[in-house]
Amino acid sequence: MTSSLQSLFEAINQVKDEQDLQSRIVPKIGEYFAAKRWGIFFFDQLPLVDRNLQKTLQIALSIEHNPVVRYLVERHAPVHEALVATPKVWAMICPRPDHWHVMAGPIVGSGQLIGVVGCTRDQSMPAFDTQDLGDLSAVCLHLSVWASTVRSQYQPFKTNRLTPRELQIAELVALGRTNAEIGAELWITENSVKQALKRMFRKLEVSSRAEMVAQLSATKPHLPSLELPLSSLVLNTHQ
């Protein structure tokens, strides 16, 4: 263990809130892994993206099409692109020059993937290696502990605002049901489902079904989690 990695652990342990995490820890991660772009992302904090772009990302960053994402979701373990794809295949999946080399690690809570640490390098930089994966695994362990303790303490328990019926709707949304299917299963109209979702979004202060499920999953482990697109890995990494 290098002294700089130890200092990174100590810094994570001293973080008080998410703003502090982003301002103090994220730059240290980028520096430690000599990354071109980098970031820490929690699924319940993902920003909204353009609808057309979101469709593209859902394909490019889906479990079916992206082996890095599949490895991360299935194993909850750090991965870089060379572990799961040849350079030619990876260039087809992610043609961005500043994402020539990609490494991602899981932030886990209650047995679920709740966030991601992502780093990228361009073609002129060396690829991520086994040592990088080992170090990222250690960093992710500390971030997972932080997320399970400090982060959970300051997050408002907005889920308590939902009625039993609204929680039923949320569980069906998490299972991938459409509004029409939810209405049929609960013996209510599709429009009633739409209106209920609007109220639920306002109560939880979210803007999408994915955000809602991610927030509920963080406080109610029994709730199924959606396959959330890891769009933040591409769109919002620091430079």
Secondary structure elements and pairings:
Elements: H1 3-14, H2 18-32, E1 37-42, H3 51-60, H4 67-75, E2 79-80, H5 81-84, H6 87-93, E3 101-109, E4 112-121, H7 130-154, H8 164-174, H9 179-186, H10 190-204, H11 209-219, H12 232-235
Antiparallel strand pairs: 1-4, 2-3, 3-4
Helix pairs in contact: 1-2, 1-7, 8-11, 9-10
Account of the 3D structure:
There is one protein chain. The radius of gyration is 19 Å and the shape is globular. The chain is an alpha+beta fold and 239 residues long. Mean pLDDT is 82; it is low at 224-237. Strand 3 (101-109) and strand 4 (112-121) form a beta hairpin. The protein contains 12 helices and 4 strands; from the N terminus they run ααβααβααββαααααα. Helix 1 (3-14) runs parallel beside helix 7 and helix 9 (179-186) crosses helix 10 (190-204). The chain has a 4-stranded antiparallel sheet with strand order 1-4-3-2, sandwiched between helices. It has 2 domains: 3-155 and 228-235, Beta-Lactamase (2-Layer Sandwich), CATH 3.30.450; 158-219, Winged helix-like DNA-binding domain superfamily/Winged helix DNA-binding domain (Arc Repressor Mutant, subunit A), CATH 1.10.10. The protein has helices at residues 3-14, 18-32, 51-60, 67-75, 81-84, 87-93, 130-154, 164-174, 179-186, 190-204, 209-219, 232-235, and strands at residues 37-42, 79-80, 101-109, 112-121. The chain is 55% helix and 11% strand.
